[in-house]
Amino acid sequence: MAPGGARGPTPCWGLPVGSAALLLLLIPAAATQEPPAAGCSQNTNRTCEECLKNVSCLWCNSNKACLDYPVTKILPPGSLCKLSSARWGVCWVNFEALIITMSVVGAAILLGVAVCCCCCCCRRKRSRKLDKSDEKAVREREERRMRQEERRAEMKSRHDEIRKKYGLFKEENPYARFENN
What we know:
Layout: H1 14-31, H2 48-51, E1 57-60, E2 65-68, E3 86-87, H3 95-165, H4 176-180
Antiparallel strand pairs: 1-2, 1-3
Keywords: Glycoprotein, Membrane, Signal, Transmembrane, Transmembrane helix
Region (Disordered): 133-158
Main location: membrane
């Protein structure tokens, strides 16, 4: 891959932005709650907004009833209110859509973390392989250099033998010949 080239699909920020918007819409509803002393049943046959001012209340859109949220269970049972008509937090999101949205967001986060972990592991493996190949290249270069030096020394000794044979061998000090005579 060329430097500066595209590295795959660009990140999609639509899902995190949508999740953040949903969270920002749920926060004001939770912040404007009534004191817990007020019962949810007193808001029955009123509006959804009045019912959901108290975070512990659940609005059932099919029969316009404001019910206490069953805190012992994660999801309200079907006998209390169908998930498609149940509202909690905000009136415009039913429980089914909320569950699906939260599941998708959670799965996307887990998938993102898994992909990041895999990418980090693959990079480490690649860098280790590069280190090993670099070490191998250095070792091979050193071996070639050693063989070349051996060949060079062998050729020098052969040339010296030929020079001695024909009297062309050069002495260390060219004036040593005159001193010995």
